[in-house]
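Task: complex structure prediction.
Instruction: return structure tokens for all chains below.
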Amino acid sequence: MTRHGLGPGRGQDGTDGRSQVAGGDRPRGSGELTHDRLTAQRGRDVSAGTPEFDTGTTVVGLTAQDAVVLAADRRMSLGGRFTANKSVQKVEQVHPTAAMGISGSVGPAQDLLRSLRAEASLYESRRGEPMSVGALAQTAGGLVRGLPVTPLLGGVEAAQGEEGPSAHVYSLDGGGSVLEDEYVATGSGLQVAYGVLERRYDPEASVETATEAAAAAVAAASERDTASGNGCTLTTITAEGVETVAREDPLDGGTQTEAGATGGTEEVA
Amino acid sequence: MQSNDQQAYDRGTTIFSPDGRLYQVEYAREAVSRGSPTVGVRTAESVVLASAARTRSPLMEPDSIEKLHDVDGRIGIGSAGHVADARRLVDFARRHAQRERLRYGEAPGVEPVATAVADHIQESTQTGGTRPFGAAVLVGGVDPDSARPRLYEVDPSGTPSEWQATAIGSKSGEIREFLETAYEPGLDLDTGVALALEALAESTDDNLAVAELDLAVLDADGIDRFGSDRRATALDDAGLSAS
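Output:
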């Protein structure tokens, strides 16, 4: 696993220096990392002989009626050339009604997931209610800054007063940007995925329709992006919680199974 | 001259008296015994924490008095003594629980959290310039792997001890005596809640008021804090309602 992206004060005792949990300062890392620079960085690391596990990745997120659907492929590659793992779960629950999909370097991305989950849980213990989805996105933006990671965040805000539940998706990057949209995609397959989403996205869609649109976006990207493939996972977020299933064939609901160990969803529930 | 010597041992937390006592720690225990009481009862599958807060005025919002605290959704802390000191201990426990999750990817058990709080308290009795925490805490919850309910007490010296049922704060001696006769291992939940409330009622001649009562159950599903309706029902079921 690469050590890439670990700033000062991190990893020393298994805590995240930038996380409030560890009480550390926020190290200013490698500054702004856009999608393009992330790719460039990956290339440099490979040429330097550093093994760089990269999710390669296509992850999409879209809002539906009172729900969010996140879909991701399952391939992890080494420098985009060798499939290092064929059953990765790239979307994980981080909050009672929110999940994050990761793209970029796997180590820092997993670190980010754990830190965000810890921050959300600490917030809930301290304040007696879950973080709002907006506050979660802001926290994620602070944690991702300086990391070679471009995640997506999806969450559903519980009904408040007369307003029903509201669905939100955000795209984030290593510069710390947090941009909300109706549908988002990230990873090396994002252009192909966006091509599908431009046609299939419907803000009024049911969860089922949105799920198939998300699966179709990952399926198309898996066809043309060499770093994406090996089936997909589909995560549905409603005001009731987060559920994830896996499909061997993204377009075939018959190949659907319960997702395996998620590495921490139970921690949140 | 004698009194001067006495004062010298009195002043520093970190100074032993000739007979081996730490006066500041004993004064901190005194502060705890003046605080409103908190009771912990271990049942077959859970830990019940119950606490009675004192409102100084009818104008005060009783909900703003913090006696029972959620640590990480699975572990709860009940306190007695200086609320301000207890808040610091609770936040230490919260940050510790999240650090354990970050480090190991697993929810910490009750004993590791209780001993971490205990070590933190102990540090204040051996470090120059500090005073001990004027609060004792009960740490309760169900261990994630064994599903065993655990109840720990940590006092101002930083000594952790595990209990089947106990109390901290004012009248804790009387409450514990009551529990020693009334407690049985393997209680079901409702009996455990009733026993905790009866024990708490030992501390006061008045009826327990719903608004001043705090009640929580820690089981395998995590912390369950009782709202005022359920507290009223629990008092009714224990035969302790005001009417």
